[in-house]
Structure formats: structure tokens, C-alpha cells
Design brief:
- It contains nine helices and two strands; from the N terminus they run ααααββααααα.
- By secondary structure, the protein is mainly α.
- It has two domains: 44 residues, no CATH class; 166 residues, no CATH class.
- Strands 1-2 form a two-stranded antiparallel ribbon.
- The chain is elongated and about 100 Å long.
- The N and C termini lie far apart (75 Å).
């Protein structure tokens, strides 16, 4: 505050008691201004950083799952220059099932009591969850494809082909998880889980590429099958 303005305000106060209180307050604020500013800033930062696991329900990993499902649904596959509807529908079904199951598991994961887990248990829980997600969506697509008249040996052929093209992404997940949990930068379970969700979102972004590569490599294997949806 400008000194002249302060002097003018004080000169208009007739009550000596009020004047004394104001002067004491001004002196106090002047002497301890740095400490007061520091405490206010720290409190503001604490409020700003007070984010919980529930906030991750709005993470963009879930919108990414929806987006890549839409992207894949617009893919069209061809065999010898002709539209291959079976290959196209198989790819769409695989992506939809994988996205739905992974999304459900990620949401359920947020209800595991993550805040109270120690670091090692959280890491093991995440690694186990990845395996479980993978096993479940593969088993589900296996059942769906067989129910739609794809021979079991052909189902395994497509799944194995997908696993081959997806291997680098899955393998990098484990390396990234180990790096995240070894880093001191992620100092609480919220930050650790946020980093994992970011990693998953990156991997999901690559899914349309891997689906496209997988089904382009099927050639005309299923072209004449009546795929019953």
C-alpha cells in the first residue's frame, strides 16, 4: 500500500484504541509478510494437489478406448482388391471386446483400495491386472469367433498373429512399470497410478495400427466364411 495513502487513512481515525490496533496490525504484517505469504502459498498448493484415485475415473484412457473402437469400426479390409467383410467384422469385434473388457477392469481397479496399498503390493496388483485383462479378452473373443463359425484352429491362428504384432507394446508395458515404480518422482499412489494410466493410454493409441497389421496379414483366409453376427 502507498505510504501517503496509509498516512491519510490513519489521520482520519479519531479513536486512539482503534488506531493503536491498526498500527500494531500493520507492523505485524510488515514484519511477518514473508512467513504469511509462504503459509498461504503452501496451503494453496496443498489444496491444488489434493487429488484422489477417484479423479482417475475421468482419465482420458477411457475416451481413448472409445475413440480407437470407433477408428477401427471405420476400417475396411480387402482381399485381392475386393472388400472382405468377414475380415473387417472380425477386426471390429476383436477391438470392441478388448476395449470393453479393458475399460471395465480399469474402472474396477480404482475400487481396489489403492490409496492404502504399499508400493510393492500396488506394483504386483497392476502386473496381475494386465495379465488378467489380457487373458479375459482373448478368451472372450475366442468364444465369440467360434460361435460365429470360425474354426478353432483358425481362431488360434489369428490370436497368435495379433500377439506377435502386439508383443513389443506388451513387453514395453512391463519395462515402463518397473521404471515408474523405481522412480522417486512418483511419490504417492495417486501419482503412480496416474503414470500407469498414461502408459495404458499410449498403448491403446497404438491398437488400431496393430489391428490393421494383424488383419492385413490374414490375406483371404476367411473370405468365404459366413460370419454370423
Amino acid at each position: 500500500m502507498n505510504t501517503n495513502v496509509l498516512t491519510e487513512i490513519l489521520s482520519k481515525i479519531d479513536n486512539p484504541i482503534v488506531l493503536s490496533v491498526i498500527l500494531l496490525l500493520v507492523v505485524f504484517l510488515f514484519l511477518f509478510k514473508n512467513e504469511i505469504a509462504s503459509k498461504l502459498f503452501a496451503k494453496k498448493q496443498k489444496i491444488k494437489e489434493r487429488r484422489g484415485i477417484d479423479d482417475l475415473r475421468n482419465h482420458n484412457v477411457f475416451t481413448t478406448l472409445k475413440r480407437i473402437t470407433y477408428e477401427v469400426s471405420n476400417m475396411k479390409f480387402y482381399t485381392a482388391g475386393e472388400y472382405d467383410i468377414v475380415k473387417t467384422q472380425m477386426c471390429e469385434d476383436f477391438t470392441y471386446i478388448k476395449s470393453e473388457i479393458c475399460g471395465e477392469y480399469m474402472l474396477e481397479f480404482l475400487d481396489y483400495g489403492i490409496e492404502d496399498m504399499d508400493r510393492d503390493r500396488l506394483k504386483k496388483t497392476i502386473l496381475d491386472l494386465q495379465v488378467k485383462m489380457h487373458e479375459d479378452y482373448v478368451e472372450e473373443i475366442r468364444k465369440v469367433w467360434i460361435s460365429r463359425k470360425i474354426e478353432p484352429q483358425d481362431v488360434e491362428y489369428v490370436i497368435d498373429l495379433f500377439e506377435k504384432f502386439r508383443y513389443d507394446v506388451v513387453n514395453s508395458f512391463e519395462h515402463r512399470i518397473n521404471s515408474i515404480f523405481a522412480s522417486a518422482n512418483y511419490n504417492n499412489n495417486f501419482m503412480l497410478t496416474l503414470a500407469i494410466f498414461e502408459m495404458w493410454a499410449m498403448g491403446i493409441d497404438l491398437l488400431p495400427r496393430d489391428m490393421h497389421t494383424t488383419f492385413e496379414n490374414l490375406n483371404g483366409k476367411f473370405k468365404n466364411i459366413k460370419y454370423e453376427r
